[in-house]
Amino acid sequence: MDKDSDSTVTSLDENTENFCTNPTRDILADGITNLFKPTIEKLDERVATTIQLQSELRGQLDALAAQLRDIEKAQQQIPEFAEKVKELLNVKHKVTIINNVLSSSQERLTNLHKLIEKEQQRRQALLDSALSTNIS
């Protein structure tokens, strides 16, 4: 029973208190946040711009479709406008799909680029350590 009283394990409250007031952890967290912040902001700006442009394009396609419907109503003898309106709506749908594909492709490329950089750093570290070992 004396061994239990000699335990060096600290209580959960002490560990939690030390973890919450650890200035090194806070500095590291701020550094990591500041490291990724410019890239995330640029990506957010680009995504916002793309979304805005897609919205404008969608609005223009809607306006064009409405104009074609008005022309079709004014001139009942030209039935092929109905098909053109359907084609425009299909194009609008395809533009939306392409935008989604481009967004996910960009995310994948960004992740791939990060993995490539990580692998290059790992190989450079191995090369540096091998060279330093051979020099010594």
UniProtKB/TrEMBL annotation:
GO terms in the biological process aspect are: endosome to lysosome transport; intracellular protein transport; lysosome localization; lysosome organization; regulation of synaptic vesicle exocytosis; synaptic vesicle exocytosis
Q: What InterPro entries has UniProt attached to this entry?
A: Snapin (IPR017246), Snapin/Pallidin/Snn1 (IPR028119)
**Coiled-coil ranges from the UniProt annotation:** 54-122
Q: Which Pfam families match?
A: Snapin_Pallidin
KW Coiled coil (keyword) present: yes
User: Has UniProt tagged this entry with the keyword Ion transport?
Assistant: no
- Please provide the record's keywords in A-Z order: Coiled coil
Task: Please give the Gene Ontology molecular function terms for this protein.
Answer: SNARE binding
User: What are the record's GO terms for cellular component?
Assistant: BLOC-1 complex; BORC complex; synaptic vesicle
Alphabetized PANTHER family for the sequence: SNARE-ASSOCIATED PROTEIN SNAPIN
Q: What does this protein do?
A: Component of the biogenesis of lysosome-related organelles complex-1 (BLOC-1) involved in pigment granule biogenesis.
Q: Which family does it belong to?
A: Belongs to the SNAPIN family.
- The entry's protein name is SNAPIN protein homolog
Organism name: Drosophila albomicans
